[in-house]
Amino acid sequence: MDVELRHLRAFEVLAQELNFTRAAARLHLTQQALSAQVRDLEKRVGVPLFERTTRNVALTDAGRTLLRHTPGILLSVGQALAETREAATGGRASLVVGLRGVSGVELVTAVVRAFRAEHAEVDVALRNVDFKDASAGLAAGETDVALAWLPVPEGLEVVPLLEDRRLAVLPADHPLAAEAEVGAADLADEPFVWIDEMDARVRDYWTLADYRVGRPARVGARISGFEDAWEAVRAGLAVAASPAMMLTRLPGPDLVTRPVRGLPPAVLGVCRRAHDDRPLVTAFIDAARAAAAR
Q: Which CATH number fits the domain that encloses residue 195?
C-alpha cells in the first residue's frame, strides 16, 4: 500500500472540518483536487473513510480508526526532519524555537534568556510562525520547541506556563462596547475574525464555539494574523477575543476591550512533539518552567 503524506494531511484536515469547502481552503486546494486525494487514499487503503451526502460529511468507523493514528504519523515525520536538520549542523548544537502569537509577551524573553544562561554554547534561532499554523512549526519539523497559546493540535506535549484573561475586542461604536462587561454567549453570536487554514479545534476555541450551542460561527472577516484582526475589527467587520497581554498596544481610540463574563483565561504553554526527549528540547522546557515560576 503506497500512501503519501499529502493523502494523510488531506484526510486529517477533512476529518477535522467535515466540510470540503473549508478543508480545501485550509489546504490551498480546489475542492475537486481534495476530493481526488481522498478518493485516491480510500482506494489505496481499500475501505471508505468518509460517508458523503449532498449535505453532510461524516467519518466511517475505518476513518475514525485512521484518524487516531494520523497526527502521530505526521508528527513523526516532523521529528525525523528536525533530527536530520540537527545532524547537518556538523556537531554545532542548535535549537529552533517557534513563536506563535506571543509577540511582546515578557515571559518569552525571560524563557529564552534563562535557557541561554545555562546553554551559551547553543545556537538559538527564534522563528515567528504564521498564525494559521497551530503547531508553531512543530508538525512540519521546522521548529524544535515552541511557545504558543493553547490549545494546540493533537500529538503535541504541552507544559502550561501562565494564564491571562481573554478580552473582547470591539469597534468603539459596537453595541456591546456600551457595556462594562459582555457575556460569553453574546460575544459568541457576533461575526468573528476567521482563519480558514487553522486547525478546526484551535479555531473553535478562539471563536468561542462552546458558547454557540451548536450554532455555526458567523464569519466577519478572513485574516492571517493579529494585525489583520485589529484592522477587521476597526472596520466594523468582526469582533475578536484575545489574551489581555496581547492588547496593550492596540492602535487608536476606535478599538475598545471589555471583560468577558464566564470566559476561562487563555493559557500560554511551551510545546514539543510527543516523545521528543532530545536533551536540548528538555532543557528548554525546564528553563521555561523555571522562568514562569519566577
A: 3.40.190.10
State in Å, rounded, how far the first CA of the chain is from the last one: 52
Domain total in the chain: 3
Residue 86: its pLDDT value, please?
65
Q: Is the per-residue pLDDT at 1 higher than 80? A: no
Per residue in 230-273, pLDDT (tens digit) is: 899 999 999 999 999 988 877 678 999 999 999 999 999 999 99
Bond prior to 151 in cis (omega within 30° of 0): yes
The whole model's pTM is what?
Answer: 0.75
> Which of 44-48, 78-82, 134-138, 174-178 has the highest mean predicted lDDT (pLDDT)?
174-178
Same domain membership, residue 156 and residue 129: yes
| C-alpha cell at position 89 | 549542523
Q: Which domain holds residue 129?
A: 75-163+267-293
Same-domain check for residues 252 and 277: no
The answer as to whether 24 is a domain residue is yes
- Whether 277 is in a domain gets the answer yes
Q: Is 86 found in the same domain as 30?
A: no
